[in-house]
Amino acid sequence: MSTPSGGVTGPDTGATGPGSGSRGPAPQPAPRKHTALPKARILIEALPWLTRHHGKTVVIKFGGNAMVDDALKAAFAQDVAFLRHAGLHPVVVHGGGPQISAQLERFGLASEFRAGLRVTTPETMDVVRMVLAGQVQRELVGLLNRHGPLAVGMTGEDAHLMSATKHYADLEGERVDLGRVGEITATDTGAVEALLRDGRIPVISSVARSADDDHIYNVNADTAAAALAAALGAETLMVLTDVEGLYADWPASDEVISRLTESELEKLLPDLASGMVPKMEGCLHAVRNGVRTARVIDGRVQHAILLEIFTDEGIGTMVVPDGHGEGEPR
After folding, report:
1. How many Å apart are CA 284 and CA 241, to the nearest integer?
2. Quick one: pLDDT at residue 289?
3. Are strands 151-155 and 117-118 parallel, antiparallel or unpaired?
């Protein structure tokens, strides 16, 4: 077909090549930057830990500054509720050292510690029971229940959960009478297991009935948590404290031991500060009696529990049984 200028055209193909006058395909917009993307990465990092711990029991000893700082208390309750909703079975064991000392001072009663344990007279024992079950436990149950009908309070006296005999401390080779301080001799975890099956979070005060008479004993909360973790066959025992973990050479260094075996811990025990002894003895007891790991973590850090369980790095010190695979993640 001829054109007015004498040129020849072919069929109209609709070509839009260079020089055709067309702009070509419209450019695609760049992917939008999502500010929430780091949150997704955090959740993905937690996935293998969620899988590993799903359905497992975790016993947590609540203590230190986390018990007296309102922001830390709220964060602790959020962490424990998160564990429950993520498919774990948390059990909380608490003491109440700062609150007990404050109440004793109001009543004009002295606070005395020997070998890291509170000397407990009959008058002191009355205050201990009142503060633990009537104050600390009730507040903690209330904080947890802001996240749903989850928490149920009980003491070691209830349903014969913990039975104890009188405990004597060893101080520089001398046997020391601490009064109404107990050493756990037996546990009956039936009531706790029933609560866990019902989806509840047991919150347990660390007092125990006597195995021999009508006395009630003050039991160190670290010791009580370790005994319950072993009796429940827990996956993990977590002990909140006011330090970063177990220091390698305190006070010469603030380097924290990230991981050690039960044998390594046993060698260190004689040289530990008195306040750390019950915590580390509790960790040792736990891993020697079927608990997979025991961890001492810094309760001054908000959401320390989630950081320890659901991140690759973790925080604090982890104790494992001898022969625990070195290649396993922390």
Report:
1. 16
2. 96
3. unpaired
- Are 306 and 90 spatial neighbours (Cβ–Cβ below 8 Å)? no
Find out whether 230 and 256 touch, Cβ atoms under 8 Å. Answer: no
Which tokens belong to 256? 């924290």
Q: Model confidence over 203-241: pLDDT tens digits?
A: 999 999 998 888 999 999 999 999 999 999 999 999 999
Q: How many C-alpha atoms does 91 have within 13 Å on its Cβ side?
A: 36
Please tell me what DSSP assigns to residue 301.
S
Supply the angle between the helices 277-288 and 221-232 in degrees, to the nearest 10. 10
Q: Which residues contact 192 (CB under 8 A, 6 or more apart)?
A: 91, 154, 161, 202, 204, 228, 232
- Which pTM does this prediction carry? 0.84
β pairing state of 317-320 and 259-261? parallel
Residue whose entry in the numeric block shows the structure tokens 């390698």? 248
Any idea how long the chain is?
330
Q: What secondary structure letter does DSSP report for 96?
A: -
Higher-pLDDT residue of 71, 16: 71
Query: Six-digit token pair at 218?
Result: 């003050």
- How far apart CA 50 and CA 37 sit, in angstroms, is 20
- At 260, phi and psi to the nearest 5? -155, 160
Q: Where are the beta strands (DSSP E) in 172-256?
A: 174-187, 201-205, 207-210, 216-218, 236-241
Which of 88, 90, 124 minimizes the C-alpha distance to 106?
124
Beta bridge partners of 60: 92, 238
